[in-house]
Queue: 2 jobs
Job 1
Amino acid sequence: MAAVEAQEREVDPQERGVRSGVALMLAVAAVVAAALAGRASLRAESAFDAWQQAGRAEVKHGAALVEDVRFVYADEGPSALRALEARVRAEELREAARRSSGRVRATLLLEARTAEALANALEESGFDLGREAYRNPDGGLAIHRRLADVRGEDPALVALDPEAHQARGNRAGDRAVLGLAATIPVGVAFLFGALGQALPRRRRGLVLAGWGCIAGALVIAVLLEVL
Amino acid sequence: MDLDLELAHRESRTRFDVRLAALVGSAAIAAALLGTLEMHSGKREERAFTMASRLAVQVSSGTAVSGLRSSLQASAITQGAAGGLESAGRAIAAIEAGSPEGGAIAAAEERASERLLELAQALLEAPGPDTGLDARTRGALEATPETLTLLVAEQNRQVDLAERYGNRENAAIFGLSLVAIAAVLLGLAGILGEGRQGRMILTVATVVLGASVLWGGWALLR
């Protein structure tokens, strides 16, 4: 033990300083690598969360869309079509009656009133698509407007934007990878530090190169935070 | 003679130390590279898997929505056509029976049928932005077998990508395991020092580290 201490005392103080520099550089490299890996891990977690949200939003949006379209096109649509058919038939029969007379006119008016009664009954049977509000100027069904109104009853579901979550996840994922890639120059710093320990003559230059690598990794990390 | 032996010993020790140091540093670089490859592959796999899941939902909802729309359109057209056939039948029957009332009703129904077919055509029109529908809803309503086929192809591509990146991630993890083994061996070689056993362990560590780098390269090419 005493011999080792005596040997240490024999080492040039400048040389001892450079050796300490190697140890310090390696310690800083380890801390920087740990910090970079930790930050990358947080970003990776954030990316995973965003992608999960994108998936959930897609499912919610898709389910709500199918349900709304089913309600308008399958529940309301067929009844509205039957009402429309009866209404158009009544209009044409009444128009024909206007141009007729006698028994023909009476028969046409009877048929027209029958068709109108059916149309009124269907239009008042509780579904909105058959109502006057959802008629186009040409008498057709404003089914897209009706669907927009049904969808508008729950605007939060319409506003779901899976693509925005996906983009956020993609960005966080890319940054996680780049953040972890910044540990590569730190690995090179480890190489320089280890070689500096083994090659005393080149130690100073290798230590400086190691510090340069650490600085490069830190610059990448700062750029990832700022940009 | 003693001086020569001392010099030879020092030179040998330096070579051993340099080799050990170079391998320790290389192991650090290999770990960083493989770790980055593992992270990259893992994130790409998650991204592709999410996209594949989302596209599957889009295909399902697009199929359901466009099916419901087509079904109503078909009903409207069938209703209009049936009205036309009914009016034609009534017209023939009215002529045979000599009924002017029947003929008048048939003519009115014929016009109603034509109008209904025109109105049914309006249901076939794609919804525009002025309808108040959001772009995603409009897109789903306008889905055709061609667009759905494209979505399915993209969904399959994303599934394949997820599988490919998943395999790459597994390979990178195995490479990292080899680096860890190499690091342990390097530590052992450092403890044993220059000697037959130390040199042997150092050689094994070199082989393991080299294998990890080759494995990482192979994973990258997969």
Note: The two ends of chain A are 54 Å apart (CA to CA).
Job 2
Amino acid sequence: MLSMLDRERTVAGPGYARWLIPPAALAVHLSIGQVYAFSVFKEPLVEHFGTKLTPISIIFSIAIVMLGLSAAVGGTWVERNGPRKAMFVAGCCWALGFVVSAAGVATDQLWLVYLGYGVIGGIGLGIGYISPVSTLIKWFPDRPGLATGLAIMGFGGGALVAGPLSDALLSTFADNPADAIAPAFLTLAAIYFVMMTLGAFTVRLPADDWKPEGWQPQEKAGQTRGNVTAANAIRTPQFWLLWVVLFCNVTAGIGILEQASPMIQDHFDTVTAAAAAGFVGLLSLCNMAGRITWSSTSDVVGRKPIYMMYLGVGAFLYFLLASSGTASVGWFILLTGLILSFYGGGFATVPAYLKDLFGTLQVGAIHGRLLTAWSAAGIAGPLIVNAIADAETGAGKSGADLYTLSLYIMVGVLVVGFVANLLIRPVSDRHMEPSEEGTGRFRREQVPTQQGVTTERS
Amino acid sequence: MVSDTFRGIALWFIVLAALTYGIVNTLSKVADLFA
């Protein structure tokens, strides 16, 4: 039975329709995207455990740190064992995390929730996040941005689904949401286990020599035609420059995302708490739409130029937000919505950027290592905004003035990312894997140039 | 044994239905912002 999960058993036969693969990836990402809706459980958990917000917030923080760590450590395992086993393991961890957390809630043991949702669930998050990425890139070598954008859009969409679903579960199982947490967790465990298992048994790898019908790889500026292993990739400046790019893009976006509700209410007295919740929802939609829209666009305009836009235009938008954000509610929403679409786009485009730089050989494992930038930004972004807002409050400021300095700092952060992106060049040949024949030439593909003349590049 | 094609198409319907559920619910909240 378990041999069904082996990499060898998942290779698709001739004529397999590649459009059957994206829903498998979406099923996994929609499930693990629940983590962004964890806030729905915060208040009920505070009440149930009779504690403050901070001990409950730690659950989410552990999960995000474990996401980065498990993606970095487990990336090579995912590449070696294939997407089916990885997705199944991710599904087991994610569901088990909810079950252990439900036991923690039922027995009033908060540490069990840390272990369940934070540690075990966090491992499911990391493995699940990277598991379909390299498979999609192999199925869609002609449109890797579209393919990974579709999957990673699911991670953004997962919160949109989990938010109202969790609310409905909490109000169904008991009159007081604090008494309904355990059954709600168990129900979510069952739903996500079924969804992720369906995804695992639907995903397939293309054969090694498979390519889309009629498609020939075209030489494009900035694309590497060889392959670099994950161990070698982290020794290249390109990896660390891209790490800085992702870190800066996520730091800037997460700063707004985390403070969205109080930020709009501090900017405009007329915005009520209910309207602010609508603003948070709108930002989530922009985040999700940016993932598929901008990542697909990168297939046409190229990866480096689209990051120029995320970081360069993003810095300009942050400047406008700091200098004229209070002009009107509509202007504020337009600026923040665009910024959040760039935030989502940055996440979704990065696997295709890695493929361009390091090839497809171990792109999933390299992506896993790069996601440590996300964990770091998850700490830095909110820290900058919250610490400065607290300091400004202490200095007697209020309203929009609480955020002005943070927004200017974010302009600087994005400029740093912009420069890092500018410095990214194609990876040197010395990092490429040698050919299997041991001829001393690099493992490169036969590719036609734009004029259609086939050349071997080495 | 369910065929890959059937499972893939069924999964497309499931994920699109889930996304629609999430988007419709979110848009109903967004309406409050412009009310």
Note: The CA atoms of residues 11 and 17 of chain B lie 10 Å apart.
